[in-house]
UniProtKB/TrEMBL annotation:
Family per similarity comment: Belongs to the metallo-dependent hydrolases superfamily. ATZ/TRZ family.
EC number: 3.5.4.3
GO biological process, one term: guanine catabolic process
GO molecular function, one term: guanine deaminase activity
Transferase recorded as keyword: no
Official protein name in the record: Guanine deaminase
Reactions catalysed according to its record: guanine + H2O + H(+) = xanthine + NH4(+)
Keyword annotations from UniProtKB, A to Z: Hydrolase, Metal-binding, Phosphoprotein, Zinc
Note on cofactor: Binds 1 zinc ion per subunit.
Class of this enzyme: hydrolase
Domain of life per record: Eukaryota
Summary of subunit composition and partner proteins: Homodimer.
Pathway(s) annotated for this protein in UniProt: Purine metabolism; guanine degradation; xanthine from guanine: step 1/1
Length: 370
């Protein structure tokens, strides 16, 4: 099968995956995320976490990942080296934060600008076709408009992808309203800074209005739907059908560690389950996501969101060979196959029950990496 594409994952948060999920987003950031991410100033700590994160993610069949790191350039460069050695395809972002951040985990506006350009030029110099820097303002509250505008300009100057978060919780949406009274809505804050482009991926988008979705469509901005995270942090339920019906590009993300599972198979399952729950409250002809649609979001959809659909996402002639060799009959594996199972049943069983034990080989751009 085609390799899986994780359009939103925080490599730095892998260290506390599966824990610390009792708080809602803004308290979770304050009490767990910022204190833990601050530790990535220590390169040894960073190297250990990033080695384990990248290994785990590849083992789970993610051939392309769109990573958030932390604000630290050296640690983020370390993540690039590790990804490069592992042979994974990736976008890697040094996070920008110059506002409403704790004193121990914040940059000045000037530092943030300089360090980001330094990071971008260093990665571009590597000339590795599999790895790209991605401009990464954490989310609107954590960046001054001056910084966000500079980042929009930098993305344009170097023709780079952009990633951030939007409308994940109602508290966050209210806070953004208070902080940016001159903006029409949350998406407008980013749009004013030229951060909504056809190379932008915005995580979550649970509470986007129709007007905001139309803006996403007209600018080519994509959404990374992270259902595990939205349930684990009790942020809400994103209606994937509505986004698809409005013609907005959509991919799936694990959002480790708002989401507790590093596997995109989990993202596929949880996307279907969230869509099923939403359908309970809808008119009778509302169609919840099928396993085929969720699979497509985790592969081709992700490649479209990341602007990589000319290279990966499926096995169309002319694309690069990002692939998994899956064995659903592996001994002591998680899937049992019976004579009555059709090919589609077997695929469905793998998507819903399978795990890394079924993933026997992993290829990126034609090279076997696992
Ligand atoms: N899920 C999630 N949402 C965010 N919004 C701002 N930062 C983050 C983060 O690290 N994770």
């Amino acid at each position: 099968m085609p390799g899986l594409i994780d359009t939103h994952i925080h490599a730095s948060q892998y260290v506390y995956t599966g824990t610390a999920m009792e708080l809602h987003l803004l308290d979770w950031l304050k009490n767990y995320t910022y204190p833990i991410e601050a530790n990535f100033e220590d390169l040894k700590f960073a190297e250990d976490v990033y080695q384990k994160a990248v290994k785990r993610v590849l083992k789970n069949g993610t051939t392309t990942a769109c990573y958030f790191a932390t604000i630290h350039v050296d640690a983020t460069l370390k993540l690039c080296d590790i990804v490069e050695n592992a042979g994974q395809r990736a976008y890697i972002g040094k996070v920008n934060m110059d506002a409403y951040s704790p004193h121990y985990y914040v940059e000045t506006t000037q530092e943030s600008k300089e360090e980001t350009e330094k990071f971008v030029t260093k990665i571009l110099k590597k000339n590795n076709p599999l790895i790209k820097p991605v401009i990464t303002p954490r989310f609107a509250p954590n960046c001054t408009l001056e910084l966000s505008k500079y980042l929009g300009h930098l993305a344009k100057q170097y023709d780079l992808p952009i990633q951030s978060h939007i409308s994940e919780t109602t508290d966050e949406v209210e806070w953004v309203k208070e902080l940016f009274p001159g903006s029409k809505h949350y998406a407008d804050v980013y749009d004013q800074c030229n951060l909504l482009t056809d190379k932008t991926v915005m995580a979550h988008g649970v509470y986007l209005s129709d007007e905001e979705l139309k803006l996403f469509k007209s600018t080519g901005t994509g959404i990374s739907h992270c259902p595990n995270s939205n349930l684990s942090l009790r942020s809400g339920m994103m209606d994937a059908r509505r986004v698809l019906d409005m013609g907005v590009k959509l991919g799936l993300g694990t959002d480790v560690s708002g989401g507790y599972h590093p596997s995109m198979l989990d993202a596929i399952r949880t996307a279907v389950q969230v869509s099923n729950v939403i359908s309970l409250d809808m008119h009778t002809d509302y169609k919840s996501l099928s396993h085929r649609e969720a699979f497509k979001l985790a592969t081709l959809g992700g490649s479209e969101v990341l602007g990589l659909s000319d290279k990966t996402g499926n096995f169309e002639v002319g694309k690069e060979f990002d692939a998994l060799l899956v064995d659903t009959t592996v001994v002591e594996g998680p899937v049992d196959i019976f004579k009555r199972d059709s090919t589609d049943d077997i695929i469905q069983k793998f998507l819903f029950l399978g795990d890394d034990r079924n993933i026997q080989e992993v290829y990126v751009a034609g090279k076997q990496v696992l």
